[in-house]
Amino acid sequence: MTTKSLFFWVRFSIVVIALCGLTVCVLWYPYSFSLIKISLLGSNLSELTTAQSWGLVSFYWAASIPCFAILIIAWKISAYIKTERLFTSEVAKKIKLCALILLIDLGVFFIGNIIFLILGINDFAIIYFFLIIGGLVLSIFLSVLSYYIAKAAEFQEISDGTV
């Protein structure tokens, strides 16, 4: 795989993930609560007020914003692939920032879902908890990737200095 094709596929993946995220934000969140409201899902949440429904949707929209920020940072990181400067401390810092943003967002998302579960207004909690576990695994992966890119950057600086 060439650098140019790798660059293309990484950017293509970022766009696909962003489109999937927008679809979830625009379609899944509002319509899932609309279906609950009219009891099409056989939920015990049909008594939700409009304010509660939009409160839930607003929380999930707000929790989605950091994910889109991570995609913007990933887009910027992908430019380093094209210029073949991926193993730098700057890239390692950006990846570590992505991991931190994701970890904080997962914490807020987890606490919010626990609160909604305790209040009895979250029928999709199990789906969101699996999403939290997946995000936690991704955050750990990004932290490890950041560490190894920082190490590779150190080795590259050492080898450039000796040559």
Topology record:
Elements: H1 3-37, H2 50-82, H3 89-119, H4 125-162
Helix pairs in contact: 1-2, 2-3, 3-4
Q: What would you say this structure looks like, in words?
A:
With 163 residues, the chain is mainly alpha-helical. The protein has one domain (3-162). The chain is 84% helix and 0% strand. It is elongated and about 70 Å long.
* Poorly predicted spans: none
Total helical elements: 4
Task: Specify Rg, calculated over alpha carbons.
Answer: 20 Å
- Provide the β-strand percentage band: under 5%
Question: Distance N terminus to C terminus?
Answer: 27 Å
Strand-and-helix sequence, N→C? Answer: HHHH
Q: Say how many strands there are.
A: 0
Specify the overall morphology. elongated
Tell me the structural class. Answer: mainly alpha
Observed structural traits:
163 residues; mainly alpha; 4 helices
